């Protein structure tokens, strides 16, 4: 699988074309070639045919790769039902206990947001929400502020109060939630991870702890769930 194919250099394009034509590779530092039998799947967010017309992508490589093309529309062009399915998919994936819920107003807002960062932004948004939410319920107040501001700016001033009402109504405070100290530490680590797009090295630097400590906290949390 080759990702971001539109950004590869002309030199790498020539090497890749040779691999596809000759079906052989040579390891770095080796003088011997090896035969390979592989199927190439490539992805790009750029228009390769447009790059070909600009002479930024080799036409012979383009035609070699364009045997079967699948166009995946970005989230901003998909319907609310598809985004909702992705939301529940990521909730199931990111919450090992499968107990975290999302309020209807929060879900409706996510379907209205334009998602410039596409699916990765949606996943990181839900990771953030799962980290900061109380009582295992994601409300408007748990969504990143930029998302709420762009999708529903009129709800921003009072969303800290209204968002806590959730589905059943009534506020949920930290005192009512009463998480253990270890759980608070684990939530904070997940929050910093979300803010750093899942990069554990950067998160460890921000937290001032060893990277292995992050793994330990997350593994303990999943085991308890």
Range of helix content: 40-55%
N-to-C SSE string, H for helix and E for strand: HEEHHHEHHEHHHHHH
DSSP E strands, number: 4
SS strand fraction: under 5%
How far from one another are the termini?
34 Å
Whole-angstrom Rg: 23 Å
Average pLDDT taken over every residue: 82
Categorize the overall geometry.
Answer: globular
Category from helices, strands and their pairing: mainly alpha
- Strand neighbour order, sheet with most strands: 1-2
The low-pLDDT segments are 156-176
- Characterize the largest beta sheet: strand count, sense, and whether it forms a barrel: 2 strands, antiparallel
Query: Counting H and I runs of at least 4 residues, what is the number of helices?
Result: 12
Describe this structure in words.
The chain is built from twelve helices and four strands, in the order αββαααβααβαααααα. It has helices at 10-22, 48-53, 59-65, 80-94, 104-112, 118-132, 145-151, 159-162, 174-177, 181-195, 200-207, 211-224, and strands spanning 24-26, 33-35, 101-102, 137-138. β1 (24-26) and β2 (33-35) form a beta hairpin. Helices cover 52% and strands 4% of the residues. By secondary structure, it is mainly alpha-helical. The radius of gyration is 23 Å and the shape is globular. The two termini are 34 Å apart. Strands 1-2 form a two-stranded antiparallel ribbon. A two-stranded parallel ribbon has the order 3-4. The longest helix is centred in the middle third of the chain and has 15 residues, at 80-94.
């Amino acid at each position: 699988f080759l990702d971001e194919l539109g950004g590869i250099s002309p030199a790498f394009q020539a090497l890749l074309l040779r691999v596809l034509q000759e079906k052989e590779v040579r390891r770095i530092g080796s003088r011997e070639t090896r035969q390979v039998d592989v199927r190439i799947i490539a992805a790009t967010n750029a228009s390769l045919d447009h790059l070909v017309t600009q002479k930024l992508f080799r036409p012979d490589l383009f035609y070699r790769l364009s045997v079967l093309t699948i166009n995946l529309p970005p989230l901003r062009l998909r319907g609310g039902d598809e985004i909702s399915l992705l939301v529940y998919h990521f909730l199931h994936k990111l919450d090992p206990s499968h107990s975290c819920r999302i309020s209807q107003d929060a879900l409706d807002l996510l379907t209205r947001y334009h998602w410039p960062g596409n699916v990765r932004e949606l996943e990181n948004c839900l990771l953030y929400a799962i980290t900061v939410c109380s009582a295992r319920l994601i409300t408007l107040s748990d969504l990143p502020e930029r998302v709420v501001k762009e999708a529903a700016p009129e709800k921003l001033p009072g969303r800290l109060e209204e968002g806590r009402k959730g589905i059943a109504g009534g506020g949920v405070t930290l005192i009512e939630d009463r998480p253990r100290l270890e759980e608070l530490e684990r939530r904070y680590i997940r929050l910093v991870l979300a803010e750093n797009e899942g990069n554990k090295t950067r998160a460890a630097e921000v937290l001032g702890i060893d990277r292995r400590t992050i793994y330990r906290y997350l593994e303990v949390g999943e085991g308890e769930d």
